Amino acid sequence: MNLKPGLFIKSTALLADSYFADAVILLAEYNEQGALGFVINRSFERSLNHLEEFKEALPFPIYEGGPVDQEHLYFLHQRPDLIQEGVAVDNGMYMGGNFKQTVEAINKRIITTADLKLFVGYCGWNTGELEAEIQEGSWTVEEGMPEEVFMNW
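Above: the chain's sequence. Below: its structure in token form.
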């Protein structure tokens, strides 16, 4: 299967003793420079309003997106009508965008977990790394639907 944004990769038993044990990752970006994705099935221990910068925000769950750059928030959404500047991933799903608009939509209760997923950190691979890990059997690749990204794992 050719890799592309919108596919899921799932860890195999080869990664059972690693950070990626039982991980389901959505590939959000794939190009000649490598791949970027988010672990969609691992909750983070705090919600948005527990972060100092967003202490006035309503509670909203955060997921542990990956081991890279856990100092920043990233997000996927299905609401380009509410959140501008997102980058299309696949099947009506977008990565990033105007985070101020995102927090406003959360606080006004006009966006829910059915359309938005917040992450601390991400997963990244340089050119050829992910392909090599798939070839060695560390990951399986599967088609997925946007609803699977936004469901509560």
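The mean pLDDT is 95.
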